[in-house]
Amino acid sequence: MNRTVLKLAIPSIFANITVPLVGMADTAIAGRLGDATALGGIAIASMLFDLLYWNMGFLRVGTGGMVAQAYGREDFKDAMNTFALGIVTALAFAFLFIVLQWVYVEAAFHFIECSPGVEVLAREYFFIRIWAAPATLSLNVFKGFFIGMQNAVSPMAVDVVVNITNIVASIFFAFYAGMGFGGIAWGTLVAQYAGLLLAVSLMVFQYRKYFHFADIRSTLKTGNIKRFFILNADLFVRSVCFLCIYAGLTSLAARYGDTDLAVSSIMMKLMLLYSYFVDGFAYAGEALSGRYIGAKDNISLKRAVKVIFAWSCAIGAVSTVGYWVGGEWMVGFLADDAEVVAHSKDFLPWLLVMPLVSSVAFTWDGIFIGATATKALRNSMLWAVAGFFLSYFLLRGNIGVQSLWAGYMMHLLVRTVYLSAVAKKEIFEA
Questions:
Q1: Using CA atoms, how far apart are residues 3 and 384, in angstroms rounded to an integer?
Q2: Confidence at 430, pLDDT banded by 50, 70, 90
Q3: Distances, alpha carbon 186 to alpha carbons 135, 166, 192, in Å
């Protein structure tokens, strides 16, 4: 079972390593283009896209779980129809986002509090990158399909191409082409379409033998569309909850000033660096739990879950040691501003605790997704949102901006406890 798990996890980890590197590269580029204002512009612009794209997370996780179970049943017609409906849904939402881009940004800045300089840069970035929406959303569906088909190599190839292209293109446009801050957004746009081209090529090369199973007319029938969205409604709510926590963290940090906003952005990038390692095993959990549940093989399911947790918890422990030893160096790499670097050191202790707690929550996420136990995932995040904001409002008078990270820690604890409590019923006795 170790070999089966690692065959899925290692390519995902390798791909995921490049994901936070993109965010770090964007942050590093912005940090060298100016002061904390440029860093704040990246943070707010990223939040604006998370407001859109995190809500579309069901395109990947929903597709992955449904396809994995179809794979376990050897029902490739259902797998192909799920993929087709996912692509149609992705393109429909992308078109809607592009049409409503101006309305969305104006509405967003009625609620986001930041300095005028940060807002100008965030707007510039958004209005360039939004044109990558069709590629970005479609890639979510491709990745979900590949993972569901027990193929971690293809999404790895796509992610590596996207992320390396993003870094290289952003540096080129920002510095060598003289585009400055806007060049970071252009780099992202070019990278997304490069990734989509590769994903389509891999799909045709590897899965064209299954294309005849797809029934487009049947896929687009009202009943099938309704079924697709009912199954993914809980995942949509879950995505909204993630969004509330992340957007809340960023927008509340902005109220404390550009320096605290920049620090929060750096902290989140460092947290993501660890989480993408654990997510490699969460993806393995998604693929294998869906496969074995679809095949009704409970013995293999239990073995897979034990192996996956052993690996993910070990990564959590190693990450804590890594942040303890190299946390200050990582902060210095991401920002040149002396005030930002000095202030960040006060928040590093949170990074020593979070990996130990979150490794369990992140791993359960993947397993529950593969099992399509979406109601439990939804409920865990509803309680987590309550824990985040309650902790913040109760503690902000005593510890100030540190209360944001106390709230973030509480949301991780809530997810871990809730999913662990219901796992037996939702996963092994379903």
A1: 34
A2: low
A3: 14, 9, 10
Per DSSP, 420 falls in state H
Distance of alpha carbon 253 from alpha carbon 269, whole angstroms:
15
Stretch among 18-27, 121-130, 232-241 having the lowest mean pLDDT:
18-27
Task: Give the Cα separation of 365 and 325 in Å (integer).
Answer: 29
d(CA 425, CA 430): 6
Residue carrying the six token digits 């393995």: 284
Whether pLDDT at 425 is above 80 = yes
* CA dihedral sign, ordered 324, 330, 332, 335: negative
Of 142 and 234, more confident: 142
CA–CA gap between residue 140 and residue 33 (Å, rounded): 31
Domain residue limits at 373: 2-428
Whether residue 297 has pLDDT greater than 70? yes
Distance between CA 72 and CA 103 in Å, rounded? 44
HEC sequence for 68-137: HHHHHHCCHHHHHHHHHHHHHHHHHHHHHHHHCHHHHHHHHCCCCCCCHHHHHHHHHHHHHHHHHHHHHH
Q: Which helix (H) or strand (E) holds 345?
A: none
Tally of domains within the chain: 1
Confidence of residue 336 (pLDDT cuts 50, 70, 90): low
CA dist 284 and 291 (Å) reads 10
Q: Which two tokens stand for residue 57?
A: 């997370």
Helix (H/G/I), strand (E/B), else coil: 57: coil
**Contact assessment for residue 100 and residue 322, using Cβ atoms and an 8 Å cutoff:** no
24 versus 213: the higher-pLDDT residue is 213
What is the rounded distance in angstroms from the CA atom of residue 296 to the CA atom of residue 35? 56
Residue 248, token pair as written in the block: 């809340």
Distance CA 281, CA 5 (A): 8
Report the length, in residues, of the chain. Answer: 430
